[in-house]
Write a structure and sequence with these properties.
80 residues; three-stranded antiparallel sheet; two-stranded antiparallel sheet; 5 strands
Length: 80
């Protein structure tokens, strides 16, 4: 799997931070963020119960540009 790195939290000083990638072949967006707390998990489960093989992560709203870019890249990679 070759991931295309999009960016990291713009307010970080380096590593170990929220980040975004795109797998263009699979048309998937990969995010790295903070583990959601129990309250967030419970609120999310009200709308979408989480199976054991999925997780909920939090990333800062200041990463909107990176998320938009990742969505655009995934959308352009219409390889089927």
């Amino acid at each position: 799997m070759a991931l295309r790195f999009i960016g990291i939290d713009p307010e970080t000083g380096g590593g170990n931070c929220p980040a975004v990638w795109v797998d263009e072949a699979k048309r998937e967006i990969i995010v790295q963020g903070w583990h959601a707390d129990e309250t967030t998990l419970q609120e999310c489960a009200q709308n979408s119960p989480r199976p054991a093989d999925e997780g909920v992560v939090r990333i800062p709203a200041r990463m909107t540009a990176q998320l938009r870019e990742a969505c655009d890249v995934a959308d352009r990679a219409r390889l089927r």
